[in-house]
Design a protein that fits this description.
Order of helices and strands: HHEHHHHHHHHHHEHH
Family: Belongs to the fatty acid desaturase type 1 family.
Number of domains: 1
Membrane topology: Multi-pass membrane protein
Organism: Tribolium castaneum (Red flour beetle)
Number of strands: 2
Oligomer: single chain
Helix content: 55-70%
Largest sheet: 2 strands, antiparallel
Number of helices: 14
Structural class: mainly alpha
Main location: membrane
Radius of gyration: 21 Å
InterPro entries: Acyl-CoA_DS (IPR015876), FA_desaturase_dom (IPR005804), FADS-1_CS (IPR001522)
């Protein structure tokens, strides 16, 4: 089926990528160390806005958050300039329910470019729209912070995602505005956007499938490092409600889990959902591709309680085997 091109987005992406290349040049040749640090800081909190925020909290309800944390994550997510929370969650829930089939907004069956960024430059199919309308989004509609952001998104996002990042270096330490704009707004936005897109493309194509060989999502450690933990994607599609979005209990390639755990320590995150190791083991043996060593999960990388569970599992296995 022929798709209609969203030309405004095409022209914007052309400018964004040219601007990002110029920003990369400026960060290597002219930007001050304070501007470079500010750039890095913005990349990190943008990533948390996607991973810990709109993805694990709002899309999958893998944990609950107090008002201060929801406000913080809403600010972080607005900084990403990747649609408002409500729209992002609706598309993501369609993606999980119809993963890599026609209704999936970024169907990886259509190839790398389409699932990476091509889908963003095409108008949404009626099939995807219809499936999205059938979803229950009452949890989002009951969240006043989500609905406030949705109502005022096109006032907030340009200021927070594009204006504020460039304004701070220019105003506070005298960076040339052209440097601030192309480094902290254009290059930073382009970089974080591609990071998110890699989860839809590379993490659905390249890697192994130790939890479910019957689906396209894979385990891609490089994507996890780039996105602070969103590349353990075969696990995530097998167990989408796990707040870690990965089997590992450590923070190996998964700083979003560290962020959520810290917020839980200070009481801002609670009711963290996780998958029992026995359930993971059963799934691995039933549908995995054979690349997961179910008796060698790297005990040193687990939380103490999980490590104890693995030790008990090992003991029982040796007694019965």
């Amino acid at each position: 089926m022929e798709r209609e091109i969203a030309w405004k987005k095409v022209f914007f992406f052309v400018y964004l990528h040219l601007g990002a290349l110029y920003g990369l040049y400026l960060i290597l040749t002219e930007a001050s160390w304070l501007t470079c640090f500010w750039f890095y800081f913005l990349v990190q909190i943008s990533t948390q806005g996607t991973g810990a925020g709109v993805h694990r909290l709002w899309a999958h309800r893998a944990y609950k958050a107090t008002v201060p944390l929801r406000l913080l994550l809403t600010f972080y997510q607005t900084l990403t300039f990747q649609k408002d929370i409500y729209d992002w969650v609706r598309d993501h829930r369609v993606h999980h329910k119809y993963s890599d089939t026609e209704p999936d907004p970024h169907n990886a069956s259509n190839g790398f470019f389409y699932s990476h960024m091509g889908w963003l430059m095409l108008k949404k199919t009626q099939c995807t729209i219809d499936k999205g309308k059938k979803l229950d989004l009452s949890d989002l509609e009951a969240d006043p912070i989500v609905m406030f952001q949705r109502k005022y998104y096109w006032y907030l996002a340009p200021v927070i995602a594009l204006g504020m990042p460039a304004f701070v270096p220019w105003y506070f330490w005298g960076e040339r505005f052209v440097v601030s704009w192309y480094v902290c707004s254009m290059f930073r936005y382009c970089l974080t956007l591609h990071g998110t897109c890699l989860v839809n493309s590379a993490a659905h194509i390249y890697g192994n499938r130790p939890y479910d060989k019957n689906i396209l999502p894979t385990q891609n450690l490089l994507v996890s490092y780039i996105t602070n933990g969103e590349g353990f994607h075969n696990y995530h599609h097998a167990f989408p409600w796990d707040y870690k979005a990965a089997e590992l209990g450590s923070y190996y390639g998964n700083w979003s889990t560290a962020f959520i755990d810290f917020m839980a320590r200070i009481g801002w995150a609670y009711d963290l959902k996780s998958v029992p190791l026995a359930m993971v083991e059963k799934r691995v043996k039933r549908t995995g591709d054979g690349t997961h060593n179910v008796w060698g999960w790297g005990d040193k990388d687990l939380h103490p309680d999980d490590a104890k569970m693995v030790e008990i599992t090992h003991t029982r296995a040796s007694q019965t085997g």
